[in-house]
């Protein structure tokens, strides 16, 4: 279905066309008409399916018809996702006058946010900072028409449930409530029952948790050889842009430093970085100055970068849902992608098998490529590049140059060989990496460990924890939760 068939205004259609959107995705087709009509919507959709436009396009149109400040509030679990949504909303509203979008999140001065809120019709923010402004009365929700909970499952995982309830209870009863989530868990259904009225359920992924566009594989390697394994995989696959996921902030720092010292254009992202540092990291990655981004799961939420060709799981994710979010960064917009997971020891192997059960697929075990096969693969790639260049046509200037050398007695074959040698400089990075002896994963470990957990792989962490290991900071500030129209102090995790 084309966007012109979805009753969107000409101004929005013009913006959509400029952004290169053509046909609407399933989640957009299922959501946009209901949101335009003011209905409550609950959507289940995987990352990379266009859900921001699914709620963003119709809400920009509704905001254009409503002169009130803060008529739309969009809640996101992380500042990165909030920034991404804000950028998209501004693009959608490019040709609509007087639509201001404010982005509200922790780590930024309050004064600038207060100024932005004075004229914003659309507010995007993280729950903790939204609560701060509610407490200061710099954000009033009396005239709110629509609230969106984006990546609701992640907000619940991060312990924002009390904040979400407080915010929802502070809004008008007749508001429109929109919820998007990668999974529709019992906790999500409880939220929909409590705060939505006869919602339309849009489940566009037909229950599938991954995409066939992503080639998934895992590699069983000793823990002390993981860095060499990662570097060998990078050398073999040669991605133009890649994401490497680690489970801890310290590992992000250590691995990013190691890759950089080995000559890779790598940079790290985690929750301890200041906002200006995070912005600089994302600018470098998006522009291609840094081709490899090493990140924790929570810090990477909201990263929306085109043409990520590969995702490397340096650690098996601690939560099953994170595997979906990680590999979903590649294989987007119809392109193919690849995911590579490094597994060390039986505990991680059991966790990987739990991931397989969760996604309903078998992840192929493969052998780490050796340096000899990498060099052969790189030669093949170089040969294909040369053939394509010749087939595309040779610049007459350089033909004349080579002919002038042959007239001086030099062989054309020797000239070409010298140029190839110079073009294919010795790979110093590869020479410093150690080959890894192939030892296949134990075959008797498929399934849960004896007496192990069946709680979807959450280990000892459950919904509501503060994620201190992933960079979230418990601010412990005084915020307010409405209960029987009275306010009480609560602790906010932001």
TrEMBL record:
Its EC number is 3.6.4.13. Residues 213-374 form the Helicase C-terminal domain. Residues 429-494 are annotated as: Disordered. One of its GO terms (cellular component) is ribosome. Keywords: ATP-binding, Helicase, Hydrolase, Nucleotide-binding. Residues 453-476 have a biased composition (Basic residues). PROSITE patterns: DEAD_ATP_HELICASE, HELICASE_ATP_BIND_1, HELICASE_CTER, Q_MOTIF. Belongs to the DEAD box helicase family. This is RNA helicase. It comes from Blautia liquoris.
